[in-house]
Amino acid sequence: MSGRTPLIAGNWKMHKTVADAEAFISALLPRIYAADGVDVAICPAFTALAAMVDSTRGSRVQVFAQNAHHAAEGAFTGEVSLPMLGEVDVHGVILGHSERREFFGETDRALALKLPAVLEAGMVPVLCVGETEDERDNGDTERKLRHQVQEGLAKVPEEQLGGVVIAYEPIWAIGTGRVATAEQAQEACGFIRALVAGRSSAAAETVRVLYGGSVKPENAAELLGQADIDGALVGGASLEPESFAAIIAAA
């Protein structure tokens, strides 16, 4: 046993109004009341964050944002700062999701600023990394992961590395129905842990590495049973309380 508590996080992306989110959490909480030994997070849109923090108080569910700016304030139209998130008691932040990178120009340089800022704010950063289909087919998976992990963690102090969560999400498996085999997922997550060990062997033992990419109740147990996979960042299957609860149960 690794001693690392699994984390199951549901990334809702651009789904759910506040009313939808309230209906979801009302259905989810009774289903996971008895779940033990697992951390749970939901990642709503900015507009539903405060409502979800209020509705999950006293439960095992934490609330993460889907993005944040590294600066405390400034002329950054459309962005949300960490003090703003902290004011509503948000627990963590997803950083560098492939959709943010692809559609909104998120760079490794920007992420290198965001990670230490999130840690400094007392929140959990979830750094997303992963390769495209072409990169996997060309044998470039490790090169891509090495670049993203090392760049993303570059400004994180060694003593704080263990508090980072890293989510391996092969881009070819996000929302496609195609999923990495358990062996492929374990190989990539083990490689990510080895990269962290290059900075700190102690941090490598505590850092949680998640798998994301078409995780469903049907494949969750096999994926989560791998030695270096400490949970899942769940997309589509996190939008329904029944399927999300089933993945939590598998953990």
**Roughly what fraction of the amino acids lie in strands?**
5-15%
Q: Helix and strand string, N-terminal first?
A: EHEHEHEHHEHHEHHEHEH
Radius of gyration: 17 Å
Q: Summarize the biggest pleated sheet.
A: 8 strands, parallel
The H-level CATH homologous superfamily, spelled out, is Aldolase class I
Mean pLDDT: 96
Report the count of strand segments: 8
Helix fraction? 40-55%
Shape: globular
List low-confidence stretches. Answer: none
Order of strands, widest sheet: 7-6-5-4-3-2-1-8
For the terminal residues, how far apart are their CA atoms?
13 Å
- Class by alpha and beta content: alpha/beta
What name does CATH use for the topology?
TIM Barrel
CATH top level label: Alpha Beta
Our count of helices gives 11
- Overall CATH architecture: Alpha-Beta Barrel
Summed up, the domain count is 1
Please explain how this structure is put together.
This protein has helices at residues 18-31, 49-56, 82-87, 98-104, 108-120, 133-137, 141-152, 182-199, 201-206, 217-224, 241-250; strands at 7-11, 39-43, 61-65, 92-95, 124-129, 165-168, 208-211, 231-234. The protein is of the alpha/beta class and 251 residues long. It has one domain (7-250): TIM Barrel (Alpha-Beta Barrel), CATH 3.20.20. Helix 1 packs across helix 11 and helix 10 packs parallel to helix 11 (241-250). The longest helix has 18 residues, at 182-199. The chain is globular, with a radius of gyration of 17 Å.
